[in-house]
Amino acid sequence: MEKRDKVYEGKAKIVYLTDDEGLVIQYFKDDATAFNAQKKGTIVNKGAVNNKVSTTLFTHLAGHGIPNHFVKQLSDREMLCKKLSIIPIEVIMRNIVAGSLSKRTGLAEGYVLKRPVIEFYLKDDALGDPMINESHIDVLELARKETLDEVRGCAHKINDILKDFFNSRDIILVDFKLEFGFHHGKVLLGDEISPDTCRLWDKSTKEKMDKDRFRRDLGNVTNAYEEVLKRVQG
What we know:
Blueprint: E1 3-9, E2 13-18, E3 23-28, E4 31-34, E5 39-42, H1 46-63, E6 70-73, E7 78-82, E8 85-86, E9 89-96, H2 100-105, E10 112-122, E11 131-132, H3 134-139, H4 145-167, E12 171-178, E13 180-183, E14 186-189, E15 198-202, H5 212-215, H6 221-232
Antiparallel strand pairs: 1-2, 2-3, 3-7, 4-5, 6-7, 8-13, 9-10, 9-12, 10-11, 12-15, 13-14
Helix pairs in contact: 1-6
């Protein structure tokens, strides 16, 4: 597989074209950002950890019937993926109150929701990825109703699968972000699933094991990420 031109660089990853027009290489960086990139830094070895965690989780999800863009891990920091036409909506699944949900509702962090909450955000860094609802999605023509219904259903299935997976490894899945896109007309899960995109708490101590350690200056960020990798890989 030949790596070709860089087609996109985001806050955490770089995407390269390949000699196969249907495949891209996703490179994971150590760069860390928070609060819509107002806070920036570096988490040592983050890229390698997130690549390996995502590899394991995408493989696990595929084995449970969730179609996604993962093809294979190429190196510590590179992943071969199906090229997607990204749907410009970030999907957030919440099982426990934390972060912005606590600020918006007044509920204490750690409150266990009666059922999962799904939220949609416009994927636009310049606007700060604002929260949107289904009426916005319809009016802005971000996705057809049947596409949104498929995304919503898939997100709930993913949540059920990953809650069980993490629970078996003594980790609580608090909330997480998903992105989807089209590949040859089919909706696939894309992006990554890692301590960058999930809130993960130790099941016994409730210690944070994700990017909140960077956001809140809690320290031991690298150790937390590596502990997640250790448990995920069993």
